[in-house]
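The following block was generated as part of the benchmark described in Methods. Ligand: zinc ion.
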Amino acid sequence: MLVLGIESSCDETGAAVVRDGREILANALASQADVHARYGGVVPEVAARAQLTAVIPVIETALARAGVGWDALDAVAATYGPGLAGPLLVGLTAAKTIAFARRLPFVGVNHLEAHIYANWLREAPSLSSSAGEGNGEWSDPRFPLLSLLVSGAHTELILIREHGDYRILGQTRDDAAGEAFDKVARLLGLAYPGGPSIQRAAAQWPAGKPLPLKLPRAWLRGTNDFSFSGIKTAVMHLARHAQESGEAIDVPAVAAAFQEAVVDVLATKTVAAAKAEGAAEVALAGGVAANLALRTRLARDLRRAGIPFRYPPIALCTDNAAMIAGAAYFHLQRGERSDLALDVVPGLALPAAS
Ligand code: KG4
Ligand code: ZN
């Protein structure tokens, strides 16, 4: 089954063609990161306009790269939430229009669920050899699957017992992990998006050299919840102190200390939850899953715990449309379709387990 997926929840416009929820035939993306870098964050109205100019060329690019015409498609899917209302509306309307005109089944996809389903994806063998970085043997993830979903707006530990069956074990009580990366990058004068900037700055700190500072960790023991506002505030004080005293802030040291603290908390709590819930596997998901320190630390700790671990290739961690087409397939398989009257839901959450 070939599904055309469309993603437009924030500042990336994506269109992808995916076979059977797993094999990527094409995954086209137009990023507006350069536009928003000027403002240090995403400006919703600017994002919506950029989605509008990008969406049709990106869909055409995806079909051309996949080497398929409209007739080959079996269904169309688009993100309907969570995200920014204006940008969401663009991709959702495009998908509904295609479904109506081509008389194709339509599925509205939850963006959070789609991030998790990036773990089912691989590139078609004929495509780039970078396929599958991190995904090893191309087996499907096994249930019960524990997913650590870490994106710009979400930080959640989710137990998935079966397709579509989600139990949120814990979540952030304040900032999301990606949001903390973005805010701390801004405090350190690093470019948007902050995650990759912090990772690059932290890499300038010599490996193995002890850090001159340790930032606070909010353990929230006895819960699977997270909190990242305290660490952000700690960096804010450091930046303010440096400014007032006229000293230059040691950016690589602070970036490395920040990354280490966030990774420490995320990894420790994920491993504890995986053990407590008897997870068959752990899967990383969301933009922060692209972070190399997080991937390396979880790989080490889960290997020690004897729990298999997987994460998508970097390009499938951050927003993309292949994950939308992928997640849609599993809904279609269960006979689920969305109505063409479906509207955007900017505050959409993962469906609670029944
Ligand atoms: O999933 P995503 O692309 O968009 C949302 O759905 O939110 O996640 C974006 C977030 C941003 O906060 C960005 O700074 C972060 O993911 N991110 C990273 C890295 N790459 C992207 N955070 C840490 N390390 C990275 N390498
Ligand atoms: Zn996302």
